[in-house]
Amino acid sequence: MGHLGHLDHAAYGWLTPALSYVMASIGAALGLRCTVRALAATGASRRNWLLAAASTIGTGIWTMHFVAMLGFEVTGTEIHYNVPLTILSLLVAVLVVGAGVFAVGYGKDRRRSLVLGGLTTGLGVASMHYLGMAALRLHGEISYDPLAVALSVAIAVIAATAALWAALNIKSPVAVAVASLVMGAAVSSMHYTGMMAVAVSVSPADTALPGATAMQFIFPLAVGLGSYLFITAAFVALSPTVGEREASDSARHLREPTATAH
Questions:
Q1: In the chain, how many domains are there?
Q2: Distance between CA 42 and CA 45 in Å, rounded?
């Protein structure tokens, strides 16, 4: 007979919530900057910037979720993770967020594109979260409060729509930074709202759990993806904007006749 387990969402204190918020904000900032760049570009350049936006937002959200999960403990049972399902949750995050970002990047009607993109991206965030939760393996059964689940999905959709609206309407780097911090807070709120929906009926057992522990699998993967975000951040920060590129081209064209005259 199982008993209700005590859930600890921050086993390491403020470390995992704070670090997960930072990861969510970095992913959002990169995604917004890449989307802004995409909307100012055309052809293959626009597509490439949108692909970068999808990968950074999806990776940032996934890393945020699983960094937060490093601090998740249930009294009376170990927690392992199903590896294929966990990787699938990352792919779902990137692919569905990508669909939302491309809807905004190529949509003719901005309002309709925003609604469609926000809904798709938000559902992608929620799908990633609950698919990641489905990857949990423990001695017991997990159940959810439907109202809290619905609230977490609503937060995800609203946060995604607000982020895409910011990408369409905000160009200033300072404003994008503020929007990213708000988006990071919204994504973190969605995660912890979803976690408040969780109840675990623990059934103690001596049998070994399938899957990998968080430190065996989640931690190295989160560090790897976190490194990817920081490297991408440096690339985006150093790459010239459309205006800078045009100014550079103009300067080069002005210099060319002089060089020919010699």
A1: 1
A2: 6
Can you read off the two tokens belonging to residue 200? 């675990």
Contacts of 133 (CB under 8 A, 6+ apart): 142, 194, 198
What's the domain range around 39?
Answer: 3-261
Tokens of 157: 């959709």
Nearest to 90 by CA among 124, 123, 67: 124
- Taken in order 48, 59, 125, 94, the sign of the CA dihedral is positive
| Residue 211, φ and ψ in degrees, nearest 5 | 90, -175
Give residue-wise pLDDT tens across range 210-249. Answer: 888 888 878 888 888 888 887 887 777 767 665 444 444 4
pTM of the model: 0.82
Token pair recorded at residue 113:
């594109």
Mind listing the pLDDT tens digit for each residue in 44-101?
Answer: 889 999 998 888 888 888 889 988 988 899 998 999 999 899 999 989 988 988 898 8
Burial of 231 (0-12, 13-18, 19+ CB in 10 A): exposed
Tell me how far apart the alpha carbons of residues 117 and 83 are, in angstroms, rounded to a whole number: 29
